[in-house]
Amino acid sequence: MDYSQKIIEAAALMFRTYGIRAVTMDMLANELGISKRTIYEKFRDKDEILAGVLKWMAVKQREAFVKVFDESENVIAAIFKLFEMMSEHFRNMSPAFRLDMEKYHNGLVKDLFVNDELPYSNNNTEMLKRGIKEGVFRKDIDISLTNQCLIEVLRLPGEKNIFRPENNSRNVFRDFYVNYLRGISTPKGLELINYYNKKLTI
Length: 202
Fold this sequence. Notes:
This protein is mainly α and about 200 residues long. The chain has a single domain, classed as Tetracycline Repressor, domain 2. The chain is about 75% helix and about 0% strand. The protein has eleven helices and no strands. Helix 1 crosses helix 6. The radius of gyration is 19 Å and the shape is elongated.
């Protein structure tokens, strides 16, 4: 592993723990046991490190998504497992990190969406194709359009003007994402959704 990757992984942990603004180059250098000069030889500034962190996190998420889908008995089970995994990820993330991203670095996330570097798009497409093959999603859905709709639903929790603070990601998942899935599901799919939705801990 080269220094660039070590810096990114250390920064990812520190950003998630303390927030982005709270982490200084001195803190990062001390954590790694290297000089600030070594960091600046690899990255222009903290924004460039953050961009690398977000891309690395997207790759790790994509790998996790693939693993869950490969190991799940059906696509509906995979969706609920992924939600639990993502919920745990956000529970372990400092509120300061989310606030810093929202206030100062939201453009970086938008860039990842534009460049298709977030895992949602490709995985949704594969999810929909597998669901049709398994008979849980209707054959007549437009995969491309449905994929785009699902991406927008996943982005909804970040819309401050839509959701009040008391509406957590679990409510959003159940009230928006799951209900959207119901609309594209066959009777078999609806039965599975109801089964896994009841098992979802509140």
